[in-house]
Write a structure and sequence with these properties.
- The chain has nine helices and no strands.
- The relative contact order is 0.14.
- It has 196 residues and is mostly helical.
- Helix 2 (24-51) runs antiparallel to helix 7.
- The chain is elongated and about 55 Å long.
């Protein structure tokens, strides 16, 4: 059986199955470009704050200079959190074994991160701020400043994603036998090249 005809955990034919069988590698690459672009923004902002000594309001990352409203838009922050949770959820069926376990860890952490951004968005839209604060405040912002907290969130989501990708692209023999996604072909080509 080929990857296109093998039974898979994605169920009957449809867009999710197509995404996790025929297009998994391409979809993962696109998703990782989005994730790395977001990371670049956070790292630029962190450098502006701690490397250049700028104030938090002045530190807008890269896109924030071209579009200043982006950095203060809870819609933009929530939109990215939503893209992350949807991407992690939709791409999960293509993973097997250890990769799937680590991808699920990233999904679980991102679910909470998404809840925090949803709380911030709802407060911004209604004008009713939690915990007696003057600005939208998430639960863990009670203990940690927002910039540091979101760097932490992005880190603890990103690390299990990287581990998942590592295991996904370097499966053990049992995992390789279970794989039905397009990544399997890339793994096979890598093994053939390494053996030559």
């Amino acid at each position: 059986m080929t990857a296109h005809t093998a039974p898979s955990r994605t169920g009957s034919p449809g867009p999710v199955r197509h995404l996790n069988v025929d297009s998994h590698r391409a979809a993962l690459n696109i998703f990782m470009v989005i994730v790395l672009g977001h990371w670049a923004e956070h790292l630029a902002q962190a450098y502006q704050i701690w490397g250049l000594g700028w104030t938090v309001p002045k530190s807008k990352g890269l896109l924030g200079y071209a579009f200043p409203w982006l950095i203060t838009s809870e819609w933009m922050h929530y939109g990215y959190a939503l893209i992350m949770i949807i991407g992690l959820f939709l791409l999960r069926p293509g993973f097997v074994g250890r990769g799937r376990t680590w991808w699920t860890v990233a999904l679980a952490i991102q679910f909470w991160h998404h809840i925090e951004h949803l709380l911030l968005l709802l407060q911004a839209q209604t004008g009713h701020f939690l915990f007696g604060r003057a600005v939208p405040t998430s639960v863990l912002q009670l203990a940690f400043p927002r910039v540091e907290l979101h760097l932490f969130y992005n880190t603890i989501v990103f690390i299990p994603m990287v581990v998942a990708m590592y295991y996904h692209l370097r499966p053990n023999p049992q995992e390789l036998a279970e794989m039905t996604c397009s990544c399997k072909h890339a793994v096979h080509r890598h093994e053939v090249a390494a053996a030559a």
